[in-house]
Amino acid sequence: MNRLIAIVGAGAIIACAFAPARAADMAAAKQNYDTFCAKRHGSGGKGDGPAGAALATHPANFSDCAMMGKMSDDTMFNVIKNGGAATGRSKDMPAWSSGFEDGEIHDLVAYLMTFCKM
Known about the structure:
Blueprint: H1 2-17, H2 26-41, H3 65-70, H4 73-82, H5 102-113
Helix pairs in contact: 2-5, 4-5
């Protein structure tokens, strides 16, 4: 019986290790972006939002594929969650750790990648 439990447990661990990542909720991510990010980053993600013009540091241009190619998903996640100052970037980028759940931030990262059209 113990052997059966060990085999089933090992199978569950293997299945979890190879489980596909959850699909991003792009509709919700777009809504969050439009509501909270577009004011600074612009509706097309070019860093040209109306509130961005007043910032000391120009907001990131997500349509710049060269810049986006250098930034990992983990880096983008950390910048959104912890803010620019906490990640060595612009202090004008606020932390959204109390505004978004981690899953929503992952969805935003996936959505931001759609602005770069190669």
